[in-house]
Amino acid sequence: MSNPDSDLDSSKDGDDIHLTGTNSRWKSSANENWASANDLSIDSERTGGATAPTRQRTLRYSTSPSPLKRTGSAFKAVSHHLRRASLRVVNLTGYASIRIPDEDLNDGDYFPAQEVKEPFEEQWNEDQVFVTRKLTPLRGRTLGFLESSSTFRLRLYHTLSHPWTEPLILCFIILNACVLISQASRTVLLPSDQAMPTPQKGFFHVWEDYVLFGLFILFTLEAVARICVSGFLLDPEVPMSALFRVDAEETSRTHLRSPSQPTFFSRALRSDQTPTDAISLPFRLNIENARDKVHRNMPYLRQSWGRIDFIAILSFWISFALSMAGVERGSHHIAAFRAMSVLRIARLLAITSGTTTIMHSLKIARPLLTNVAYFVVFAAVVFSIIGIQSFKGSFRRNCYLQPTLGETQTQIPTQFCGGHIDPNTLDVFPYLQLDGTPSSAAKGYICPLGQVCQEGTNPYSGVQSFDNIYYAALQVVIVTSANGWSPIMYSIIDAEFFVSCFFFIICILVLNIWLINLFVAVITNTFSAIRSDTQKSAFGAAPLGPGVEEREEGWVDGKHVSQNNPLKAFYTHTRWCWVFLALASLVVQATASSDMSVMHRLILDKSELALTVAFDIEIIIRIAAELPAWRRFFQHGNNWLDLVLAVGSSVIQIPAIHNSELYPWLTIFQLGRFYRVILEFPRMRPLMLTVFGNLYGLANMTLFLLLVNLLAALVCVELIRGDMPDGTTINFGQLWNSFLAVYQIFSSENWTVVLYGATDAEIPMGQAAIVAVFLSSWFVFANFIVMQMFIAVINENFSVAEETKKSKQASDYWAQHHPQRVMHNSWTRKLNPYRWMKADPVRVKVENLPSNLVLPMQKTLVQDYGVIGQDNRNGTGARHLPSKSLTMLQHLFSGNTNSNDVPLVALRQGRRESTAVEDEETERYLDIIAKATNGADTTEDDHDEHSERKAQKADFIIDHPTYDKTFWLFSQENRLRTMCQKIVKPAGGERLFGAPSSDVAHTLFQLLIFLTVLGGIITEGVATPLYRRDYYMQHGLMRGTWFNFAEAAFGLPFLAEFIIKVIADGFLFTPNAYVKSIWNILDFIILIGVLVNLSFTLIFVSGLTRSIHALKALRALRLVTLIDKMRNTFESLIISGATRILDAAVLAILYLIPFSVWGVNIFAGLMNECTDTSVNGINDCTNEYVNTIHGNSFGFLVPRAWGNPSPSTTFSFDNFRSSMLILFEIVSLEGWIDVMSVAMSITGKDQQPQSNNSQINAIFFVIYNLLGGVVILTLFVSIIIGNFSSKTGSAFLTHPQREWIDLQKLIKRQKPSKRPKSRPTQLLRAWCYDRAIHKHGWWSRMMTFFFVVQIIVLMFVGSWLDCVPFRCLSIWLPSDDFSLIITMMYVVDIGVRFYGLGWRSFRANGWNMFDIVVAGGSFITTLIVRFGYMGFVVEQLQKLFLVSIAFKLVQRTNNLNQLFKTVIASLPVILNLLGLWFILFIFFAIMYMEVFGLTKWYSAETHTQNYQTMGSALVMLAFMSTGEGWNQYMHDFTLAYPRCTITSNRLVETDCGSTPWAFSLFIAWNLLSMYIFLNMFTGVVVQNFSYVFQSTGGAKAITREEIRSFKKTWAEYSNSKTGLLEQSRLVPFLGKLNGIFEVRIYPVEYSVPAIVSACKDDDTQKLGTQELKLNTRKVNRTLRKIDFDVIRQRRAVYCRLFHEASIIDRHRKGISFTDMLFLLAHHKLIVDCDALVLKDLIVRQETNKLVSDLVNLDRVRSLLKMISLRRRFLAERLRGKLLCCVIGSVDDPIGIVDIPAIHVDSAPSTPPPFTRDITSPRSDHGRSDQTPSSPTPAPKTLCPSPELGVLDHSFRSSLQRSRRISDVSMLSADMGHSYWRDSSLDIGDQADIMSSMQRSIWGGMLSVF
Question: Are 498 and 1511 in contact (CB under 8 A)?
Answer without folding.
Answer: yes
